[in-house]
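Issue 218. Parser rejects a valid record. Input:
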Amino acid sequence: MLDPTTTVTYVSTEPFDRTLKLLRDALARQRLLIAGETDLQARVQQRFGLRIPPCRTLYVDSPEVFLEAITRNRPVVVFLPVHVVLSAEEDGTVVYVMNPACAKGTGWPPDVRIPLNRVLLGVTEAVETVAMRQAARAA
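Output the parser choked on:
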């Protein structure tokens, strides 16, 4: 189970493939790069022979922040790329993203927190164009 303090959940009424396409486009408009992805549905099918609904992890990065981090601020690289998980549901798609507020209250030095927040803000803005934020559920 995902900890509600470290992730934000979004819900799209669009089918998985459509949400994935819309999110790819929205990330590109934010000048974010999908550095890689994992098709979890295919991986589980291949490894365990189980059929699960479509599920994919996108590894989202900012080329500018990454370059800055690799040349001047290496600790930021630990947190990049940001993982965005899309999971098909019966009536749409659920998207999970790291909670940007999580990075604010960590006690990390500003030279780590500020670039990470720039990437998370872009990811959040992109996701919010394709899905609605779901209210946190009480445990």
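Fixed in the parser; the record now loads. The longest helix spans residues 110-128.
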